[in-house]
Amino acid sequence: MSTTSTLPGTRPGTAPPIVTGRRKAGGGLHSPRVLLLTIPSLVWFAVFTVGPLIAMFVIATLRWKGLLYEPTYVGTENVSHVFADPVFFDALRNSLVQVAIVIPIMIPLAFMLGYHLHTKPRGYRVLSVLYFSPGLISISITAMIFYGVLSPDGGVNGALRQIGLDSLATPWLADPSTALASLIAIDLWRGVGWTAVLFAARLASLPSDVVEAARMDGAGRFRIMWQIAFPMIKDYVRTLTMLQYLWTLFTSAALILLLTKGGPGTSSTTLSYLVYAKAFTQRDLGYSQVVGVVLLVLGIAGMLLIRALLRSSLENKR
Amino acid sequence: MTRSRRSGTPVATVLSWLYALLLAAPLYYLAVSALKTNVEIFTRPFALPAHWLWGNFETAWRTADLGGALFNSVLISVVAIVLTLCLAVPAAYALARQDNRVARVVTGVFSAGFLIPPFAALIPTVILAIKMDLFYTREFQMLFLPASALPLSVLLLTQFMRTVPPALVESAALDGAGHWRLLFNVFIPIAMPGVVSVTILQLLTFWNEYLFALAITGTGPDVRTVQVALPTLVSDATNFGVLTAGTVLTLLPVYIAYSLASRRMQEALTAGAVKG
Questions:
Q1: Rounded-to-integer distance, Cα B107 and Cα B161, Å
Q2: Which residues of A touch B269 (CB under 8 A)?
Q3: Superfamily of structural domain B65-274
Q4: Contact B73, B227 (CB under 8 A)
Q5: Is the pLDDT of residue A12 over 70?
Q6: Which of A122, A207, A250, B37 is least enclosed, having the fewest CB within 10 Å?
Q7: So what's the ipTM on this one?
Q8: At what angle are helices A124-132 and B262-274 packed, to 10 degrees?
Q9: Is B116's CB within 8 Å of A146's CB?
Q10: What is the DSSP letter of A174?
Q11: Which residues belong to any copy of the ABC transmembrane type-1 domain (chain B) (predicted)?
């Protein structure tokens, strides 16, 4: 990002004495005091975003049994509770499984589909409208769609019966062996196409002559995609990978709340859902917020890891 | 050249349409189920309805009180977007005009804020609502949503406002224009595509918000949003026809908006994610 040309003092020839009283009172059109205009938004951000984020660390040290009770300070007691609770480790495992499956499938697949869209294949308008549409659909609508699709008498089982695979039919969301997998499939259903559209938009902003030159040299399509187009948008791939990672890790609570309530047992409980459930259904705010802090730490650690991974491979190639 | 670009490899073509089919199938299932009875949904899941049961829509509308819920959603989204713009536009103007250390710190704060999903602080936010005496009200949502939208809005608007040519600023300054005149007569008109993008993007985000709406505004029939009202159609004996009809009704406003301004919406949503 280059500097703007409106830096203070970039107006040569404006001798200080000429500045009129009126301008002085207004702070001058080039005075840094214009930054006062950012204060309302910063206050808003501090009150509604930074404040609650800090409060999370405080609440993690409190015994607080439900929102309407008075909390008492218990130090690290909640932390030892959480780390002695098998449910927490189930949730941790499920969250790790979730991101470890979703991200490595979603990002490469979305990149390839995005590259394909970018080459404007036949029918690409239909494709891009379809790929784009999950981006318009809210979590609660997604959940309601799949509540129907995955119910025991729903679309998936109906389709399986029609092609004679009755034995595979199962209550997808109520079966401990398929509940988490179903949620992961919904993540992919939502995310892949939408991310592909984003990649296509980014690829469209690249100069086309590099790709053309490679084609002239006889480079194959697969090679152009991975060895020319991919490195050119690597920064963007990294950003989207980080965002998808954070969304997957943090926002699974809503879908789980609507579809499986973390069950059966703890088979589909993720850390994100545990934060929600402990606070609102099991009334243990301290526990909930310790998990919230764990989630935040995992989020930051994962981001740093993705940053490092996608940076080093770029350097290796050069 | 164009030919080779258009043909693509068979594998890519097959894969891309296979995925498109996977996306379309649940949407098709949704649309046909909305016109059927439970029995027909279970026995002939993908067939067109034998009798088109338009009554499902009426039942869904009445049972979940979707009319009131739609009104609440519109009210919250509109107030929140106005507030978002009132906060973000002046801030973006300031950040576009100044590039000193303070400005870079403010930009850094918003960049970090953009990465953190709002869900991280859900429970403390609920407590904040209680402390402000705004728990189970629409008002808290109107105040809170702009805060969650600020990082991205400010960053995007700043980028658009940086495109204002310095010469225009100079000539406005010579005319004796103050900050507000400069903002309204020069910066906002030039950054209008950015303002439109931010408006579309954040309106959609506000409209689709679910978990905060559920936890803070709650399920009270007089305050709940349409996203919260829809899942109330699920019960131990869910009428799937009615549920899917309600889902279609909830989805309709967004798809109508998309069909009217698909290009604009696609631009706005991709712009939102392009900004890292």
A1: 14
A2: 132, 135
A3: MetI-like (1.10.3720.10)
A4: yes
A5: no
A6: A207
A7: 0.86
A8: 60
A9: no
A10: T
A11: 70-261
- The pLDDT value recorded for residue A272 is 93
Ranges of each domain in chain B: 24-53, 65-274
Instruction: Provide φ and ψ at A73, rounded to 5°.
Output: -75, 130
Is the peptide bond between A264 and the residue preceding it cis, with omega within 30 degrees of 0?
Answer: yes
Per-residue model confidence as pLDDT tens digits over A33-55: 888 888 899 999 999 989 999 98
The two tokens of residue B274 are: 């392009």
How far is the C-alpha of A316 from the C-alpha of A295, rounded, in Å? 31
Which among A1, A38, A130 has the least Cβ separation from residue B106?
A38
Distance CA B18, CA B225 (A): 35
Which residues 255-274 on chain B approach chain A with CB closer than 8 angstroms?
Answer: 255, 258, 262, 265-266, 269-270, 273-274
Q: What is the mean pLDDT of residues A55-74?
A: 83
Chain B positions touching A236 (Cβ under 8 A) are 274, 276
- Calculate mean pLDDT across residues B104-124: 87
Helix (H, G, I), strand (E, B) or coil at A63: strand
For residue B90 the two structure tokens come to 């002046």
Residue A120 Cα, gap to closest chain B Cα (Å): 6
Q: Which fold has domain A85-317?
A: MetI-like fold (1.10.3720)
Which B residues, 48 through 87, put their C-beta within 8 Å of a C-beta on chain A? 87
Question: Which of A4-8, A278-282, B83-87, B117-121 has maximum average pLDDT?
Answer: B83-87
Q: How far apart are CA B170 and CA A19, in angstroms?
A: 14
- Residues in CB range of A91: below 8 A, 6 or more apart: A266, A269, A270, A271, A273, A274, A291
Residue ranges of domains in chain A: 30-78, 85-317
What tens digit of pLDDT does each residue of A214-260 get?
Answer: 777 777 777 888 888 888 888 889 888 998 999 899 988 999 999 99
Nearest Cα of chain B lies from the Cα of A139 at a distance, in angstroms, of 7
> Looking at the DSSP assignment, which residues form a beta bridge with residue B276?
none
